[in-house]
Fold this sequence. Notes:
By secondary structure, the protein is an alpha/beta fold. It is built from twelve helices and twelve strands. It has two domains: 11-104, P-loop containing nucleotide triphosphate hydrolases (Rossmann fold, 3-Layer(aba) Sandwich), CATH 3.40.50.300; 149-283, Rossmann fold. It has a six-stranded parallel sheet, sandwiched between helices. It starts with 10 loop residues before the first helix and ends with a helix.
Amino acid sequence: xxxxxxxxxxxxxxxxxxxxxxxxxxxxxxxxxxxxxxxxxxxxxxxxxxxxxxxxxxxxxxxxxxxxxxxxxxxxxxxxxxxxxxxxxxxxxxxxxxxxxxxxxxxxxxxxxxxxxxxxxxxxxxxxxxxxxxxxxxxxxxxxxxxxxxxxxxxxxxxxxxxxxxxxxxxxxxxxxxxxxxxxxxxxxxxxxxxxxxxxxxxxxxxxxxxxxxxxxxxxxxxxxxxxxxxxxxxxxxxxxxxxxxxxxxxxxxxxxxxxxxxxxxxxxxxxxxxxxxxxxxxxx
Length: 285
């Protein structure tokens, strides 16, 4: 920035400032005191200030720390926009694996002060690599989702989840968080429920993608649910997973998220639950 003899910015500099504020969607903040801004707004202004210098490289330390979900997403998209449209190289430090996967072109993993691995995030951020770097056994990185899932533990298991089509994800994560052991299946291996279950459930029975659930799978599942409370997540029923209805009908105690009308239509004798917390209440009885 160049100032005249009276310390005033030249017209070009004012134009640059206005342009950078527009770039970071922060023109509305031009007259707002920095001390009165939220963390997300301050981050935008700091990025704009760096851009106003018309740099070739911007260095950032944990750019999304302390930001709420809305501002975190805005900053992630903003950094990607700057790199794409302005041709500015952005070098940042972060512990946010999701951020690295979503916006970074290259990553460098550091362990004990030395470079452990480097390359494309899609190739470098694998389960094996992250377990080695972070050394955690209580959670597992699920590369297909870009998230960490709490790992199953050796604990008493008296619950079985019959799910599919993403209807069991929140329930299984909730149970894992609460330390409640469970088994799951039969789930097709291309289903998001299976991806979560293989990390959180003690045992998962699965079928190959697009195949009708086989008799061997159902037989094993029937043996697995013996003596357990079975939760029916209200999964969509089609030709490939209709065999799970037999599993439900062979269960002695079912908790179901389906409506009364659907339960009657399917011929299921079940206790209807409306929420995830209802499941814990019923299991505790």
